[in-house]
Design goal:
Elements lengths: L2 H32 L8 E10 L4 E10 L2
Antiparallel strand pairs: 1-2
C-alpha cells in the first residue's frame, strides 16, 4: 500500500463529502426559512453515517448545526 496515495485519497473523499454536505445543508436551511418552516435562530440536530462496505465499517457521527 502506498501511504501517500492512500492519505491523499482519503482527504479528497472527505473534502468532497464536506463541501457537498455543506452546500446541501445551506440549500435546505435557506428553503426552510423561505417556506417558514424555520425562523433562522434554531439549533438543528444532525446525524451522519460513514460506511465502507468492503471494510465492514459503519460509523455514526452526531452533532448540531447552529443557525444563530
Amino acid at each position: 500500500m502506498n501511504e501517500e496515495t492512500f492519505n491523499l485519497s482519503i482527504r479528497k473523499f472527505l473534502k468532497k463529502v464536506g463541501v457537498g454536505s455543506q452546500w446541501e445543508i445551506e440549500q435546505a436551511v435557506n428553503k426552510a426559512i423561505e417556506e417558514g418552516r424555520l425562523k433562522g435562530d434554531e439549533t438543528l440536530p444532525a446525524h451522519m453515517t460513514l460506511e465502507i462496505g468492503d471494510l465492514n465499517l459503519k460509523i455514526d457521527f452526531d452533532g448540531s448545526v447552529e443557525l444563530e
